[in-house]
Design brief:
single chain, globular, binds beta-D-glucopyranose, alpha/beta, 7-stranded mixed beta sheet
Length: 734
């Protein structure tokens, strides 16, 4: 069971504290900072006052790949941080990136974040974060470097599979729940990468140039929600620059916005090796420097970190005031105390059947049925004698990798495992690779074609892998199409057996046009965690009705996507101009009237849903303005879940606005024939745009259209809404 942490107040900001939950039996002369009954800020003051300059410095930089130093004199343990977003990473180092060679660091591998996003189920994001929090506790980690809430701006982004999607509202909703689930275990989340981090190409040096509206309306909202709603305890700065300054040491982003305007009370951590100077780090708001000196695996190198000896020297010579150091240390201590580091903490649990069940449930809700002509799916096992499974991704293990998104999982059910186990002795399941990574092999294609021809149905498990220039950190994808001749393989197999199902194991999106028309059914299965093969089989054979929806627009071709249409990718002379501004993802396709291959929010089901009776009901409460109420009926023969999406369109805006924007959604499960009323509340911010001149969010008087649909291009209901009076929500000042 997750521990509940009550919310108290630190200054003006509500901050979740563990202190009143964990009580230490009273001890007469124990230091105040060890007394769990004391307010966090008093405990912080007390501890800070006891620290020497050197001890303070030791807390604000790494002493190994994933830790900061212990201060035994004061009972401060080593602070262990770890990746990652999809499960607690295998231990490395401590001074190198090599595996630590432990046998007790296996962890639950959850479906990747692009899969979690595709569930459109914030409840599952809570469950996801909770699994990671429990496993982090069991593995003795204090800070988890997750979740990623960066926006999927280009489908070529090598880490797109680690991203929740292209829409700020969706990312915010899923990110908030993930963080709440994680932090409810007394583990700090470190939301990343602040801000941008939209491509791997040139990520360590590229300078991002975007206007204020784009920053505020597209890239910041998931971080703003993480701070203001989920009370996230730490934030990782992106590698790249924003308006010429390193994101992790960026006076505007960190001092002014994050800590000033949003009143973030936790600490800002650098990405690994993402700090480039003492002065920028000291003054630019960085609180903890992580990484390693390039090429050095010598532990003494950590004392040369910019926030180590050089900063200490600067304090001693009076270049920097001690108060600057104290603020950084205070933030670390605050998080330590708030997460219960000095108090009894929950022990956590690792690799439990419950965690594996969460992994399977998320996988089942994440897979997106892109095409299903003539009910090609689900397959009826009773009517099948043989199934030809084709494609390397049917047998490939995707959990572990060299970078932070990998997990050393105790097991991984591959698609072939899942299909074989499901079929049992009811159908013969054959496997052929179909292609080889090292180039075309005509024999492999011929074998796959022969297998498909002699089987009742062919299932091609195609896609990408965590290989350089595919879904991998450090490099963007080389292209939007499938590698290794898979397009040709699919064409030949479907010609041999028209009953061919294509399953895509990959991040979003893939260019499918060369074979899509010939294939009756396509399922986007993501990298779906340790239980992925079971989830896939249950969907293919109809035990689970697919309910995932796309979180990224699938373009017909790369040049239809904004960053590519405008030629801004991968940047010019070291600068990445966000020329498309607000028109990211579906906003661009709407504005330019481009037909996507599959739109944002799209996903089929084995049943059908009917939408009716939209009413806009005035809302009570302070921020609410109106609640959209409507009915959804399951008009098919099987139970299914639908993600109803609410988009807002302003009719005659005084400034350029996207055609429509997602401002609400709800996933509901309906039995055959069942009708339910769905309510989605809207607040003023749902109508507002950011006005730099007014330094605030403006919901302008005028006419709006509230649109409800099954995808961004399948809007079923709409109702006008009129706002009488312009309202401006000013940004809070420093
Ligand atoms: C990544 C981070 C990750 C860190 C530590 C960096 O390369 O950008 O997301 O947390 O490494 O592994």
């Amino acid at each position: 069971m997750a521990m509940r942490i009550p919310a108290l107040c630190v200054g003006a900001i509500s901050f979740a504290l563990a202190c009143s939950t964990f009580s230490v039996p009273g001890q007469g002369n124990q230091p105040r900072y060890l007394d769990a009954s004391q307010p966090v800020e008093l405990r912080v003051d007390d501890l800070l006052a006891r620290m020497t300059l050197e001890e303070k410095i030791s807390l604000i930089h790494a002493d190994s790949k994933f830790s900061t130093a212990a201060i035994p004199r004061l009972g401060i343990p080593r602070r262990w941080v770890d990746d990652g977003p999809h499960g607690v990473r295998e231990d490395v180092g401590p001074y190198s990136w090599n595996s630590a060679g432990r046998t007790d660091d296996y962890a639950t591998w959850l479906p990747v974040l692009s899969a979690l996003g595709s569930t459109w189920n914030p409840g599952l994001a809570t469950a996801y974060g909770n699994v990671i929090g429990q496993e982090a506790r069991a593995r003795d980690k204090d800070v988890m470097l997750a979740p990623i809430v960066d926006i999927a701006r280009t489908p070529l982004c090598g880490r797109i599979y680690e991203y929740l999607g292209e829409d700020p509202y969706l990312n915010a909703r899923m990110g908030v729940n993930y963080i709440e689930g994680l932090q409810s275990n007394g583990v700090a989340a470190c939301v990343k990468h602040f801000v941008g981090n939209n491509q791997e190409s040139g990520r360590e040096s590229i300078n991002m140039d975007m206007d204020d509206r784009t920053l505020r309306e597209i890239y910041l909202p998931p971080f703003e929600a993480a701070v203001k709603e989920a009370h996230v305890w730490s934030v990782m700065g992106a590698y790249s620059k924003f308006r010429g300054e390193n994101c992790a040491c960026n006076d505007y982003l960190i001092n002014h916005l994050l800590k000033g305007e949003w009143k973030f009370p936790g600490f800002v951590m650098s990405d690994w090796g993402g700090t480039h100077g003492t002065r920028e780090a000291a003054l630019g708001g960085l609180d903890v420097e992580m990484g390693t000196l390039v090429g050095s695996e010598d532990p003494s190198a950590y004392s040369q970190f910019f926030l180590a000896q050089p900063f200490l020297d600067g304090i001693r010579t009076g270049e920097y005031p001690v108060s600057l150091l104290d603020d950084k240390v205070r933030r670390s201590l605050r998080v330590m105390i708030a997460t219960g580091v000095f108090d009894p903490r929950p022990a956590g649990s690792l690799n439990t059947p419950q965690h594996q069940a969460v992994a399977r449930r998320i996988a089942e809700e994440s897979m997106v049925l892109l095409k299903n002509d003539n009910h090609a799916l689900p397959l009826n096992l009773a009517g099948l004698k043989s199934v030809a499974v084709i494609g390397e991704n049917a047998v490939r293990h995707n959990a572990n990798g060299f970078f932070g998104a990998g997990v050393k999982t105790p097991y991984e059910i591959t698609p072939l495992d899942g299909i074989k186990q499901f079929a049992g002795d009811k159908a013969r399941v054959t496997y052929s690779a179909g292609y080889a990574r090292d180039g075309g092999d005509a024999n492999l294609v011929a074998e796959a074609v022969a297998a498909a021809k002699s089987a009742d149905v062919a299932i091609i498990v195609a896609g990408l892998s965590h290989t350089r220039y595919q879904d991998d950190e450090g490099w963007d994808r080389a292209s939007l199409s499938l590698p290794y001749g898979q397009d040709e393989l699919i064409k030949q197999v479907v010609q041999a057996n028209p009953r061919t199902i294509v399953v895509l194991v990959s991040g979003p999106a893939i260019e499918l046009g060369s074979w899509l028309a010939q294939v009756p059914a396509v399922l986007q299965a993501h990298y779906s965690g340790m239980e992925g093969g079971h989830a896939l089989a249950r969907i293919l054979f109809g035990e689970v009705n697919p309910s995932g929806k796309l979180t990224v627009t699938y373009p017909k071709q790369l040049s239809d996507s904004p960053a590519h249409a405008l030629g801004t990718y991968p940047g010019t002379s070291g600068t990445l101009f966000y020329k498309e501004g607000l028109l990211v993802g579906y906003r661009w396709f709407d504005a330019k009237n481009i037909e996507p291959e599959f739109p944002f929010g799209f996903g089929l089901s084995y049943t059908t849903f009917e939408y009716s009776n939209l009413k806009l009901v005035p809302a009570d409460g302070t921020n609410g303005i109106v609640t959209a109420q409507f009915e959804i009926k399951n008009t098919g023969k099987v139970a299914g879940a639908e993600v109803a999406q609410l988009y807002v369109h302003e009719k005659n805006p005084s400034v350029m606005r996207p055609e429509k924007e997602l401002k609400g959604f709800k996933k509901i499960l309906l039995q055959p024939g069942e009708t339910r009323t769905v309510s989605i509340p809207l607040d003023l911010r749902s109508l507002a745009f950011f006005d730099p001149a007014k330094a605030g969010w403006v919901a302008e008087a005028g006419d709006y259209q509230i649109e409800i649909g099954s995808s961004s291009r399948d809007l079923r209901l709409n109702e006008p809404f009129h706002l009488d009076q312009t309202r401006v929500a000013k940004l809070s000042s420093n």
